[in-house]
Amino acid sequence: MKAATIGQGQASRDDADQAFGQRDRLVAALEQAREEITALREEVDKLSAPPASYGVYLSSNDDGTVNLLASGRKSTRRSRSRRSSPGRS
């Protein structure tokens, strides 16, 4: 009976060693997955950010408005700048 108990004890230790090894592999896999998720989340945030809009100055008008080209469309806007327009004094 003693031999059976010793054999069972060794089997239990082997099972425990195997479980700890599996646990370590799972922990490593989870850490790697967490890093990948973080990187993907950052990429999604960048891709879902609104596009940067800008306009190209075309000319100034005598009434204080400016002509702009924005998003492929020409528009006239009231100037917010207090600086003199290019080419003017």
Mind explaining what this structure looks like?
The longest helix is centred in the first third of the chain and has 47 residues, at 2-48. This protein has a three-stranded antiparallel β-sheet, with no helix packed on it. It contains one helix and three strands, in the order αβββ. With 89 residues, the chain is of the alpha+beta class. The mean pLDDT is 83.
In round numbers, the mean pLDDT is 83
Q: How many domains make up the coordinates? A: 2
Strand order of the largest sheet: 1-2-3
* Count of DSSP-assigned helices: 1
H/E element sequence: HEEE
Tell me the Rg in angstroms: 35 Å
Strand content: 15-25%
Observed structural traits:
3-stranded antiparallel beta sheet; 53% helix; 3 strands; 89 residues; alpha+beta; single chain; 2 domains
Concise synopsis of the structure shown:
The chain is an alpha+beta fold and 89 residues long. The chain contains 1 helix and 3 strands; from the N terminus they run H-E-E-E.
Write the layout of secondary structure elements.
Blueprint: H1 2-48, E1 55-60, E2 65-70, E3 73-78
Antiparallel strand pairs: 1-2, 2-3
